[in-house]
Amino acid sequence: MNTLDNIEVDITVELGAATMPIHHLLRMGRGAVIELDAMENDPLKIYANNTLVARGEVSVEEGHLRVLISQKAFKRG
């Protein structure tokens, strides 16, 4: 198992997404709000190296934000 200890994986958690022209983004200031395409109870998307691997939900415990995995999304070959 020691060889697995040295493998790095980039984990990304997506709350939602939005599409907008770059000039709108550049005009945004502090406190600006970007509306996402997800509702508050929609599952988060969890990616490993840009591949969707699971869905989850946000949890706050002892002041720390956590992601709880609720469903694996592995494709079987």
TrEMBL record:
Keyword Mitochondrion listed: no
Localisation per UniProt entry: Cell membrane
Primary subcellular site in the record, as a coarse category: membrane
Keywords noted in UniProt: Cell membrane, Cell projection, Chemotaxis, Cilium, Flagellar rotation, Flagellum, Membrane
Residues in Flagellar motor switch protein FliN-like C-terminal domain copies: 3-71
Entry-linked InterPro entries: FliN-like_C (IPR001543), FliN/MopA/SpaO (IPR051469), FliN_T3SS_HrcQb (IPR001172), SpoA-like_sf (IPR036429)
An example Gene Ontology CC term for this record: bacterial-type flagellum basal body
Gene Ontology BP terms: bacterial-type flagellum-dependent cell motility; chemotaxis
Signal peptide: none
SUPFAM superfamilies: Surface presentation of antigens (SPOA)
Annotated membrane topology: Peripheral membrane protein
Entry's Gene Ontology molecular function annotations: cytoskeletal motor activity
Entry-linked PANTHER family: FLAGELLAR MOTOR SWITCH PROTEIN FLIN, PTHR43484
Family: Belongs to the FliN/MopA/SpaO family.
Name the record gives this protein: Flagellar motor switch protein FliN
Organism: Devosia limi DSM 17137
The organism's taxonomic lineage, starting at the top: Bacteria, Pseudomonadati, Pseudomonadota, Alphaproteobacteria, Hyphomicrobiales
